Amino acid sequence: MNFWKTAALMACLTLLAPWMAAAQSPVGMWKTIDDKTGDAKSHLEIYEKGGKLYGKVVKLLKKGPDTRCDKCSGAKKDQLVVGMNVVEGMAAEDGMWKGGKILDPENGNEYACSMWFEKGQPDELRVRGKHWTGLYRTQTWYRVK
Fold first, then answer.
1. Which of 66, 87, 96, 137 could disulfide-link to 55, CB 3.0 to 4.6 Å?
2. Is there a contact between 27 and 53 (Cβ–Cβ < 8 Å)?
C-alpha cells in the first residue's frame, strides 16, 4: 500500500511540474507601474525568442496610442511606443533573468536589466534597471490575467 501512495504522489508531481515551472515564468502580459508615482503606465507583453526574453509595449494606460519615443536615439527615435520592444535579450541565470537591457521611453535611456520573482509571488515581477553609474531603479510589475 505504501508503494502505491508513493507512486500516486510521484505521478501527481510529474504532472504538476510543467504547470509549476510555467507559473514561475515571466512570459505573459504585465501591467507596468511608475516607481515614482505608483500609477499604472502600460501593459507589456514578455515573450521568448531564441531562448531569451523580450518585452514589447502593447497598451499605454496614461498616454495615447500615437505616443512616440521622441527622446530615444538610433532606430527607435520617434517610433511609436506601442509595439516597441523595451526589454531585450534577457537570459535565465540562477533563478533570475539577466544580461539584457531595458529602455525607458520617457527619457530615452537604456539600462542593464534584471528580473526576478520574490519567493511565493509569481504574479509580481521585480524589474531593475541599472545605470552605468551604479544607480538603479526597481519596479514591481503585476501579471495581467
1. 87
2. yes
CATH class of 26-143: mainly beta
The domain locations on the chain are 26-143
Question: Which pTM value belongs to this model?
Answer: 0.81
Question: Alpha-carbon distance 135 to 139, whole Å?
Answer: 14
Count Cα atoms within 13 angstroms, Cβ side, for 19: 5
- pLDDT, residue 24, reads 86
d(CA 96, CA 74): 29
Q: How many residues does the chain have?
A: 145
- What are the average pLDDT values for consecutive 10-residue runs of the chain, which has 145 residues? 45 38 79 91 97 98 95 96 98 95 95 95 96 91 95
118 secondary structure, DSSP code: P
Task: State the Cα–Cα distance between residues 92 and 101, nearest whole angstrom.
Answer: 14
